Amino acid sequence: MEEVMNKLVRVVFSLTFLSFLAFSFVSANQTVTVTQIKGLVQIKKMNDGLWSPAQENASLSSGDQIRSFLESSALLTFPDQSEFILGENSSLDIKDVSQNPNTKASKRELKLNVGTLHYKVKPKEETAAEFKIHSSTSIVGITGPKAS
């Protein structure tokens, strides 16, 4: 009986430790801010199937979408102050905007469905940042180590 109890204690301890370990590697979600809007720009939140007019200072999270129409654009600002301009007649999916809570490394993954996206990635001194931009014809990756 004592041997069974010892095994049970080890199993419970192991499961508790693995749960803690898995939780510590979960990425913290961050948001992208729609800083400026020109013309007609719409957003669709991940949990909502409807497009709605974008508002300045609106927050976009992983899974959200944004689109612009003729003679329209949107300035998107990331938590590290990197800026992206969504050009006219463009559609963008926010695939992943997160930060590893342990290393503080940022991850930015976007999918440009159609149109243009201009970006200005600011150097980040604290930790490495990873940007990936997918399109129908290519994948662009920007990885930055710690600034020296």
**Percentage of residues assigned to helices:** 10-25%
Q: If you compute it from the alpha carbons, what radius of gyration comes out, rounded to the nearest whole angstrom?
A: 20 Å
Taken from the alpha-carbon principal axes, the silhouette is globular
Number of helical stretches of at least 4 residues = 1
Short description:
This protein is of the alpha+beta class and 148 residues long. The protein has one helix at 2-24; strands spanning 28-29, 32-38, 41-44, 52-53, 58-60, 65-68, 73-77, 83-86, 91-99, 106-114, 117-120, 129-134, 139-144.
Polypeptide structure, described:
The longest helix is centred in the first third of the chain and has 23 residues, at 2-24. A hairpin with a 6-residue loop joins β9 and β10 (106-114). This protein has one helix at residues 2-24, and strands spanning 28-29, 32-38, 41-44, 52-53, 58-60, 65-68, 73-77, 83-86, 91-99, 106-114, 117-120, 129-134, 139-144. The N and C termini lie far apart (60 Å). The protein has 148 residues and is of the alpha+beta class. 16% of the residues lie in helices and 44% in strands. Strands 1, 3, 4, 6, 9, 10, 12 and 13 form an 8-stranded mixed β-sheet that branches. The protein has one domain (27-144). The radius of gyration is 20 Å and the shape is globular. Mean pLDDT is 78; it is low at 11-27.
